[in-house]
Amino acid sequence: MDENRKAAYFALLDVEDRRAYSNIVLNNEKFRGKLTSPALATELVYGVLENKMLLDYIIDTIVPTGSAKLKSSVRVILRMGIYQLGYMNAIPEYAAVNESVNLTKRFCKGREGFVNACLRTYIREKGSITLPNRDEDEVRYLSIKYSYEPWIVEMWLTQYDADFVEALLRAGNGKPNFVIRANKLKISSEDLAKRIAAIGCYAEKGAIYDDALYIKNGAFLIDSDMFSQGLFSIQDEASMLVITVLDPKPGELIMDVCAAPGGKAMAIAEKMGNKGKVIAGDIYIRKLGLINKEAQRLGITIVETKTWDATRIDTEILETADRVLVDAPCSGLGVIRRKPEIKYKKRNSEFDSLPEKQLKILTASSKYVKPGGVLVYSTCTISQDENQGVVAAFLKENQEFIKEDAIQLMPNVNGTDGFFICKMRKA
Question: Which residues are part of the catalytic machinery?
Answer without folding.
Answer: 380
